[in-house]
Amino acid sequence: MKVTYYGHSCFSVYANEKHILFDPFITPNELAKEVDVDSIKADYIFISHAHYDHILDVERIAKNTGAKVLGNFEIYNWLLKNGIENAHPINPGGQYDFDFGSVKCVIAQHSSSFIDGSYGDIACGFVLTTIDGNFYYSGDTALTLDMQLIPKFTTLDFAVFPIGDGLTMGVQEAVEASNLVGVTKILGVHYDTFGFIVMDHQKAEAGFKNAGLQLFLPKIGDTIDL
């Protein structure tokens, strides 16, 4: 599958001829200033939780593309109130089939609130199954033993984990998470955007390599095959 990284936790996966975008936060990110947000293609947009650094560009991209936007029930209601009618609710434990394949929503151990401080409901991750491959995006999360349930339902080709530490997992926890879900290829996200999540790239890559895993840290705007 082709994966394009747009900075922070925003990335797109092209699977079964569909563009699937996650957690759009681009325009306020100085590191992503070369990305033209209006040129991004999206058939689906998944929102892991309500924090501004995962949701800020969703209205713009959804209205540009007509993408179907999925998030927990509070995010779903927020989308409708903000004029995004092509929205669909999904909460942990839920699974739906779409034209790209299927998605199962799983728990993420993290806080969640909208920029005005209102309740954002529970944070989520997503497991996608497609004819081109299967992957798990954990969303912002701490390491949790719930992850060991994922391989009982899906054989994964890769996973997307936050590795910037401080607010989410760091490298050590993400290595353990990789073992729990049974992957050797990991796309790292949620690092460098803010001063308190800046990380040493070489140290991070070595941490995964020493565990027999491969960490991918593409440049913002680059597309890689996973």
TrEMBL record:
Signal peptide: none annotated. Residues 7-190 form the Metallo-beta-lactamase domain. This is Metal-dependent hydrolase. Keywords: Hydrolase. InterPro entries: Metallo-B-lactamas, RibonucZ/Hydroxyglut_hydro, UPF0173_UPF0282_UlaG_hydrolase. GO terms for molecular function: hydrolase activity. The keyword Hydrolase applies. It comes from Flavobacterium cupreum.
